[in-house]
Amino acid sequence: MTQTFEQRLARAQATTLVCVGLDPDPAKLPADIRSAPAPLLAFNQRIVDATHDIAAAYKPQIAFYSALGAEDQLASSIAYIRERAPGALVILDAKRNDIGNTAQAYAREAFDRYGADAVTVNPYMGEDSVQPFLEREDRGAILLCRTSNPGARDFQDLVSDGLPLYAHVARRAAERWNAKRNLMLVVGATFAQEMAGLREAHPQIPFLVPGIGAQGGDLDATLQAGLDVNGAGLLINSSRGIIYAGGGHAAAIRAAALELREAIERRRAGNKSDR
C-alpha cells in the first residue's frame, strides 16, 4: 500500500529534521568535479553519499539545473537519492504557480517528470492555483508563507483584518486546503518570532525552514519557536552551509551535516525533558 505524504514525512522526521539543499553553483564546484561529464550530478552524488544516513530530505533548487540546460542531471540526481537514501523525501524547490491546466502541468512536471515528493508553491493566486498541487495524497505542496529574505516584509507583513498577509496564507491553508494533510508552509529561520506565532496558531502544520547558516538564522531560536508537541513539525534546510563545507569535499560535507543534526537533536531532547 502506498504511504501518504503525511506518513512519509512523519517517518523521516522521527530520526532527523535535516534537509540538505542541492544548489550546485558551477562557480563553486570542487575542482575535481568540474571536469566530470555531468558535474552537477557528480557533485550531488558526493553530497548524497556523505549524508544519506543523516538527511530526512533533499531539496534541489531547479534554477541551478535549468539555467544550464541540465534538467537531465536533476532527474538523475533524484533517481540517485531514491537508490542511496530511499527513506528521504525529495522536495523540488521550484516555487511554481499558475491557474487551470498550467498549474496542472507544473504539478505533472514536479511529480511525474522528476518524481519529487513535494514541490514549493507560490500561493498568491489563490485556491484554484494551489489545488492541482494537492490532489495526490502521496505528494505534497509547500506553500510560501513567511520567507527568509529581507524583502519578505515588503508584502508579507501588510495587515488586513488585524492579521499580516503571511498569517492569512497560513490560516487559509490550514482551514481550507489541507484536506489530505499533504501541505507544508515555508517559514524562514530569520523570523523566529513570526514562526512562534504561526506554530501556536497552527500546531499541526509542518514547516520547511530555510535561512539557517549562510542567511544567519538562529538554530536554537528556530527550534524553540517551531517544534511541535512531538518534537517534530520541521524540516530545517541548509544548502551552502553543508554542500560547500571544506570546499565541497566529502568528509567536510558529512561533518557539517552531522553537526547540524546533533545540534537539532540536543534541542529536541531538551524539549522532551521539559514536558
Present the secondary structure layout.
Layout: H1 5-13, E1 18-22, H2 31-34, H3 39-51, E2 57-60, H4 63-66, H5 71-84, E3 89-96, H6 100-113, E4 118-121, H7 127-130, E5 140-146, H8 153-156, E6 159-160, E7 163-164, H9 165-177, E8 183-187, H10 192-201, E9 207-209, H11 219-226, E10 234-238, H12 240-243, H13 250-274
Helix pairs in contact: 3-5, 3-13, 10-11, 11-13
Descriptors for this entry?
TIM Barrel; 275 residues; two-stranded antiparallel ribbon; alpha/beta; 13 helices; single chain; globular
Q: What would the principal axes of the Cα set say about the shape?
A: globular
**Backbone structural class:** alpha/beta
What's the name of the CATH homologous superfamily? Aldolase class I
Q: Percent of residues in helical segments?
A: 40-55%
From the 3D coordinates, which CATH architecture would you assign?
Alpha-Beta Barrel
* Number of self-contained structural domains: 1
Q: Give the class-level CATH name.
A: Alpha Beta
Strand content: 15-25%
**Mean pLDDT across residues:** 94
Low-confidence stretches: none
Biggest sheet, in brief?
A: 8 strands, parallel, barrel
**How many strand elements?**
10
H and E string? HEHHEHHEHEHEHEEHEHEHEHH
Question: What's the gyration radius in Å?
Answer: 18 Å
The CATH topology, please? TIM Barrel
Please state how the strands of the largest beta sheet are arranged side by side: 1-2-3-4-5-8-9-10
Characterization of this structure:
The protein is of the alpha/beta class and 275 residues long. It has one domain: Aldolase class I (TIM Barrel, Alpha-Beta Barrel), CATH 3.20.20.70. It contains 13 helices and 10 strands. The chain has an 8-stranded parallel beta barrel, surrounded by 7 helices. A two-stranded antiparallel ribbon has the order 6-7. A hairpin with a 2-residue loop joins strand 6 and strand 7. Helix 3 runs parallel beside helix 5, helix 3 packs across helix 13 and helix 10 packs parallel to helix 11. The model has no long low-confidence stretch (mean pLDDT 94).
